[in-house]
Design a protein that fits this description.
3 strands, 80 residues, globular, 3-stranded antiparallel sheet, alpha+beta, 3 helices, 36% helix
């Protein structure tokens, strides 16, 4: 199940360049590459912390399926 509210971990670094982003979890040393949609989701979650509010904003901005936006491949329970 996806959380509806999230808090970005202080142990996760985010860097953006050229519309793409990289998340690095300092505890696990795992990293994730984000495309432009992922970067916007990260930014919206940083602002509101509300997954549904963030998703609704992105659905208005991007041509992306709601289910793909809310459950990205590879994140089905592995939140940064």
């Amino acid at each position: 199940m996806i959380p509806t509210r999230v808090i970005q971990s202080a142990n996760t670094l985010f860097e953006e360049a050229g519309g793409e982003g990289v998340l690095l979890n300092l505890e696990t040393e795992r990293y994730y590459i984000l495309d432009d949609v992922g970067v916007r989701m990260w930014q919206e979650l940083a602002e509101s912390g509300d997954v549904i509010v963030a998703a609704e904003k992105l659905l208005a901005e991007f041509d992306v399926d709601r289910d793909i936006l809310l459950i990205p491949k590879g994140f089905e329970g592995d939140w940064v």
